[in-house]
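>> received
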Amino acid sequence: LVSFREVLVFCGETIVPERLTGPQLSFNFTIRIYNIGVINMLQEFKKFALRGNVLDLAIGVIIGGAFGKIVTSLVNDVLMPIIGLLLGGIDFSNLEITVKDAAIRYGAFLQSIVDFLIIAFSIFIFVKTINKMKKKEEEKPPTPPEPSKEELLLTEIRDILKDRI
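>> returned
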């Protein structure tokens, strides 16, 4: 069971010792401590999960996984058969070297290299496009701030004095 000091530390509340009596007290406070701990943990998780960076990262991972599957299919089902035909009818998925009982499938490795090159090139183009867009935003001259009320009033006074002279 939980001692009185542990209850004070976990709950973070001021508790009057005179009101605490009997073994029933320890059971009730144990449940309350558990509930407060779960609530605090859920609140912290909510703050963490709803930050913009975490959501962006999660979306990026999901889209990246789907993009990887598309590129793998493109390489395995479209590009490698065409490259194989151009090289004399070679099927890259079946290329392997057998050493004793072990088969080294270098054809699958070549397909993975082509996968990587396509994904790396796609990411390069994407980042280059984003950087161009950011550069254009930076090149735009900032709009001058609107004059304050004091400046407007001083301008009016100056114009009135010019008209009098």
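>> Residues 131 and 137 are 10 Å apart (CA to CA).
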